[in-house]
Specification:
about 550 residues; mainly beta; Methanol Dehydrogenase, Chain A; 5-stranded mixed β-sheet; 5-stranded antiparallel β-sheet; 3 helices; disordered C terminus
């Protein structure tokens, strides 16, 4: 696809006060940039120090839950509701005021691990986070199902009614046998872990392989027009493997779709793996160097099973940097890559660690596999992620939760701002009171402490260390990420959705989650952020890259 290349300067333009509240959570990390930035005046840094589980909220879930929960204020019958999908192939609507079930829909029978060729999820049902279109009153979700106890395995993409959970006409979509180039989609070997994305009437679904890399799987991005799913198109890696499997899934700047892929097998020349890919509408790929990036040592990464795509691409604009419109990629090799999202640059020219893309640097001595978050605070622009090791060059105590500061220079720089102990494998989000002030990084010690943690987003200071004995959750699955809704934090764990509330707000649970209250959450489902970044060259102003993913560009 042809792109206009600009040497941009970024300027911060404040939006109107009606855009100051995050409101609905309709997709993974709240918006299509996947930055995980929430705006909630009630979640101050002081409030974070008093947070605890609210036992008046009781929301039972069937089985393991890997997908992030979603929240819609105008849910079934106008009731504010959480939408949660589980590995049991069930989707639930839960009353946001008390957690009671509004409806539950079964999409089929999940596949037992014993009937999979490889893998580590048992059973395998719904793993990737769904996406909601509130205007169409539709929930879109992929489910791995079997009609015969596991002999036959199918990936079915459903559109469900937000109001009652029924399957909408024309769905589900069975993508068995879909082809792209010389590749054919083979469901038994494909897993759908990455978050779904909806933009301009097209549903995008990423796929990778099962744990263990068995079979003839590929990295796929499926593009299904929601008004005519029979016209589905796709892109896939040319070589075997190269899964688009990072839990954050696909991201968008409102025009392009960005995917990150893992290692391929048997590629003598680059064939789509170890890369960030920019796709056009319908998952079209030009093959131009402006539309992909892979490090110069991609073959070495391939041979070592060291994926660039262990974390999905995160989009961030850094005022004052050149380039300022960036894609952040984080690899299993512990390297952070900053890419110019208007010109990804093709095959890198650095040494594999530094000099790749617009900027790159080793930032962790372990693998980075999670969904990162990004935010701008008074002290600068940050990206925060979880790692299996510790940050490299932590200025204070070491830790596996690492915050990078992106310097507003030409080119932008990367430095480790702070490190902390996440006590597990959860993915972070960030809350601010107005878009930049009082940033709080929230994480869960998934598959370890199973506790919620909060940190000062600028310093890494511990604000909440997991609380008391009664604040420990049941098993929280790896890469699980919290959400922020009306002054509260919610976390999906095995068998239960948990609500955490600051001490002073516990008694207001039912009122704050029944629907809009003062201050009212924004209902703009395009998920406008408080700050809109505009880039311009010396000749003209041009608005760029609005952060939204549902509905038409505005």
């Amino acid at each position: 696809m042809k792109r206009e290349h600009i040497l941009p300067l970024c300027f911060l333009i404040l939006l109107l006060p009606t855009d100051l509240i995050s409101g609905d959570v309709l997709q993974h990390h709240r918006n299509g940039t996947r930055d995980g930035l929430y705006i909630d005046p009630l979640l101050t840094q002081q409030a974070a120090t008093t947070i605890h589980i609210d036992n008046t909220f009781s929301a039972a879930l069937p089985g393991p839950t890997y997908a992030q929960p979603l929240y819609v204020s105008n849910g079934p019958g106008g009731t504010a509701a959480f939408i949660v999908a589980t590995e049991q192939d069930t989707v639930l609507a839960l009353n946001a005021s008390d957690g009671s079930q509004i409806w539950m829909s079964s999409l089929g029978t999940p596949v037992p691990l014993s009937r999979l060729p490889c893998g580590d999820i048992d059973p395998l049902g719904i793993t990737g986070t769904p996406v909601i279109d509130p205007d169409a009153r539709a929930i879109y979700v992929d489910a791995m199902t079997t009609p015969d106890g596991g002999a036959t395995k199918r990936h079915l993409i459903f559109a469900l009614s937000l109001d009652d959970g029924s399957t909408l006409p024309g769905w589900p979509l069975d993508i068995t046998g879909l082809t792209y180039g010389g590749s054919t989609f083979d469901p038994p070997y494909q897993n759908q872990r990455g978050a779904l994305l909806l933009i301009s009437g097209i549903l995008y679904v990423p796929y990778g392989g099962l744990w263990g890399d068995c079979g003839d799987y590929h990295g796929w991005v499926i593009a299904a027009p929601v008004n005519d799913p029979t016209s589905t198109t796709a892109w896939a890696t040319a070589a075997r493997a190269g899964g688009a499997w990072g839990p954050g899934g696909l991201s968008t700047d409102g025009a392009s779709i960005f995917a990150a892929t893992g290692n391929t097998f048997g590629a003598g020349t680059w064939m789509g793996g170890e890369a960030v890919i920019r796709l056009g509408p319908g998952a079209t790929f030009s093959g131009d160097s402006a539309d992909f990036f892979t490090p110069s040592n991609w073959l070495q990464l391939d041979n070592g099973d060291v994926d660039v795509g262990g974390s999905g691409p995160v989009l961030i604009d850094v005022p004052g940097a050149t380039p300022c419109q960036l894609v952040v990629a984080l690899g299993k090799n512990g390297v952070a890559y900053l890419l110019d999202r208007n010109n990804l640059g093709g095959i890198g020219t650095g040494d594999g660690f530094q000099g790749e893309g617009a900027q790159s640097m080793p930032v962790s001595n372990g693998q980075i596999i999670n969904a990162a978050a990004a935010y701008t605070a008074p002290s600068g622009s940050y990206v925060v992620f979880n790692s299996t090791g510790n940050g490299i060059g932590c200025p204070g105590s070491p830790g596996n939760l690492v915050a990078l500061r992106i310097g507003a220079t030409a080119p932008p720089t990367i430095s480790v701002a702070w490190c902390a102990n996440n006590q597990g494998r959860g993915s972070p989000i960030v809350t601010t009171t107005d878009g930049t002030s009082e940033p709080v990084v929230w994480t869960v010690g998934s598959e370890s402490s199973n506790r919620l943690h909060a940190f000062n987003g600028e310093t890494g200071e511990v604000l909440f260390d997991g609380g008391r004995q009664g604040d420990q959750m049941s098993l929280v699955r790896r890469f699980q990420t919290p959400i922020a809704v009306n002054g509260r934090i919610f976390v999906a764990a095995d068998q239960q959705l948990y609500s955490f509330a600051p001490q002073q707000t516990t008694s207001s649970q039912s009122q704050s989650l029944k629907g809009p209250a003062a201050p009212a959450p924004a209902t703009d489902h395009n998920s406008r952020r408080r700050s809109q970044l505009w880039c311009a060259n010396n000749a003209h102003w041009e608005p760029r890259s609005r952060a939204f993913s549902i509905g038409n560009p505005d």
